[in-house]
């Protein structure tokens, strides 16, 4: 050990190890772990090692969960669910509160265990992960208490299967378990194979607080165990992890009736404008891609910087990077710890190699012995470079430039992902504009990687769907009240050979695309309702999606008030032309449609976002945004009311739709097309394609330009859509068949499904702390 | 000691576009203290280094020559000699002693035979609201009394009114009056309020030739804080990048505990580098801080916490 006088010359930091003895004692006492099922630990089965990635040392043996283990856990969860779901919210709140308190009391233990198992620096597990875990359980204790009043009539989904990743093991557990339990569900959770230990420690806490047996079940294992859980008879699957695995889960769940939320990968833009506080932005990079070894799904990994400040920014970035300390995760002075596993380290290094082979220049980013990779970034990198396109999931950013804010938006959105974004500008005008235009579920203005239990988190595009946190997150674990009915399957398509005899002039019905009547591409028709109905095909869908994309800007530009006026006018014209629907829809249906126009005109400027109580000094705004282009598949029954029940909330929120009317009774929708045309609904906002429902839906689900699909039918057609949408990762909502004229066929449930939330963080404060600023 | 900053012409374009994002500065300042930890020998060494950098200060209306002499004795021997010996450290003194102009002579007498410089506040400390000629005369008086370093205060009004050129001219005149003596420019950041003001004022002071920029007089409602210091250090870094000149930094009035001393040193090391952990580029304006460091050192050596009565008064 150097002498004090020597250190006074070198001014080195020296070692500052966190004490791990309590954790090591616990691991020694526990020996091998079984699963936690029905309130007890099972005897260990076939086990595998969980290791400390910084040393490679074995920490514990945990059990490889079999399909039988999973079934046992699901049965336990099922048995427990009735009682747990029926329990007064206050009683569930007490349990969640007890869990929060107990975690708080064991903060140090859990932080050390997390850092040992995952390799993340103790500073991060201690100051970020575990406090957020505590925050999550407190927040959701509140939702449990308030669920009955805040979500009247809603019911828990039942048993939730939850599969979580290794990058934030305990925090992802909290994000999954807390809302599920608060809503009255029971869970079977599978932690990642690299990092199961804090989940097992959490199981002990559940037992310690007396949580009823079976409410929380933990089954450890690898991807096979996860797959078994996905196949098991559960009511919902919630998954956080890679896009690749998420797709497989979506495929496996298709047609099962299970709810699904997916929080997948990302390649989030980090946009530095010319008027940004560059030092603040550089520190933002440290909090983004150089946080948690870059193993962060929402990391701002694509740095886009204004050309005019790019040179200075890079100089500051490089200098800051050189100050980061790579080292032992348990050392309190470590900034960047160990990559979770040698497999992951290899994956990162291979991707870096591919990026440099494709012409990018790597700055920093050297591999070190053991599971370590120094922070770095790729520069001179082209848009198609694999390092620019693929999620690296390591401490390596990309650095490229833009000229103007609109180019920044284009580059930011030039990705298959849509999880998060970070925008740096001292201009509120510019920053809020970019926040609105960047396609992401979370946007951090002048900050990065901020999380809170009240702030919904989740993505779009290949980053998945569903939200975790706040009211939105709760709704993903609840079912809205509905009295389901049956919807008949469509009849066989009968190709129409020749026009039937008719007394007067022929009536020609056409598709409605881009505000105009269009002949079907295939030039064919089918017979329904004594008419020749256009037999739409894949190309008609393509044309309709393009028309819808073209109609979006104008429609959204109208704003809620403008759209409301159009919907009122539509109601007026429907009332005028009531007679035209005779024979196609009952008068009651027409009345329902007219009323529903008023209903959604009323809501068009009232389905608002909220500013949620996240952190003091931070505006945290959650706003519903339209998906964009939606594909709507109307029920077979109720050809007008059912059709309008889907179209109206979708367009009220600012979406443009491609709607497929009742295959058997399309005339009401085709008649409606004429009313739309004379009601100031801009061309392209509603597009109507008739024809073989299941073929058309498959085409919709396979079109990347479609951002959401509603399918009001059931059966194999729905399953097929879900299978196709598993590839495009388009969320498919299935409003259960119901009385389409009744009050249960309208309301917030529909508006919520017609939108997705964007959470925008904006820290504020002109004055530093202690000088009287209201922010602090 | 050698002066390192000759100053530059007035360059408004070097700082007029600075916009400091306050929440981000605070986030950095908060996380910085949690990102580095110093234990055992390293902690002791860093604490003793802080002692080396202290401008041991008394700036009270009731100062007397004897009180100043007692302070100077403490500056000569800031930590118990036996404990220093136990740590193998020799010749430890504080960085300087800092007093009012009328106490400079007493301090010089008391420090005779040492290399410890005497710093004098001047220019109408603490408010600076005196005619410029009187403020300049005060600098000359303090130098005449034997001061080695001059801590001037800037005109806050010029900052708040955005009169940067006038501020530059005024500080240049003070710089000239200081001659070869080291000049520290006190920005009184607690009265400039915004971090953007702090950054801009830092640049003006450096362009006018300040050898150090210093946060506070110790008399403002808010004195040295980590976010304010962070912003000043980044200004020093930018100025170094612009000119190649190294300017020192002196936080004053907010550092009371050994933990503060460590936090500020970590800030210096992380933002500017280890060169800024030496007394030629880093000073801490403090009076009560030393006592807490002594207690920590005593604990390191003996394993016990010492009562205040066991430590030599300053």
UniProtKB/TrEMBL annotation, chain A:
**GO molecular function terms listed in the Swiss-Prot or TrEMBL record:** aldehyde dehydrogenase (NAD+) activity
Keywords from UniProt, A to Z, are: Membrane, Oxidoreductase, Transmembrane, Transmembrane helix
Q: Give the Pfam families listed for this entry.
A: Aldedh (PF00171)
What transmembrane ranges does the database entry give?
A: 640-660
Q: Where is the Aldehyde dehydrogenase domain?
A: 47-478, 533-731
Which residues catalyse the reaction? 263
Name the Enzyme Commission number(s) assigned to this protein.
1.2.1.3
Entry similarity comment = Belongs to the aldehyde dehydrogenase family.
> Under what name is this protein listed?
Aldehyde dehydrogenase (NAD(+))
The species this protein was found in: Paracoccus denitrificans (strain Pd 1222)
Automatic annotation (TrEMBL), chain B:
Q: Which PANTHER family match?
A: DEOXYRIBOSE-PHOSPHATE ALDOLASE (PTHR10889:SF3)
EC number(s) on record?
4.1.2.4
Identify a single GO molecular function assigned to this protein: deoxyribose-phosphate aldolase activity
Q: Does the keyword Lyase apply?
A: yes
Q: Which organism is it from?
A: Paracoccus denitrificans (strain Pd 1222)
Gene3D superfamilies assigned: Aldolase class I
Example GO CC term: the record gives:
cytoplasm
Q: Which GO terms describe its biological process?
A: carbohydrate catabolic process; deoxyribonucleotide catabolic process
- InterPro entries assigned to the protein according to its UniProt record, in alphabetical order: Aldolase_TIM, DeoC, DeoC/FbaB/LacD_aldolase
Keywords annotated in UniProt? Lyase, Schiff base
SMART domains named among the record's database cross-references: DeoC
Q: Please provide an example of a Pfam family that matches this protein in its UniProt record.
A: DeoC
> Has UniProt tagged this entry with the keyword Acetylation?
no
**Pathway entry:** Carbohydrate degradation; 2-deoxy-D-ribose 1-phosphate degradation; D-glyceraldehyde 3-phosphate and acetaldehyde from 2-deoxy-alpha-D-ribose 1-phosphate: step 2/2
Q: State the family named in the UniProt similarity comment for this chain.
A: Belongs to the DeoC/FbaB aldolase family. DeoC type 2 subfamily.
Put simply, this protein is called: Deoxyribose-phosphate aldolase
Catalytic reaction(s) noted: 2-deoxy-D-ribose 5-phosphate = D-glyceraldehyde 3-phosphate + acetaldehyde
Q: Where is the signal peptide?
A: none
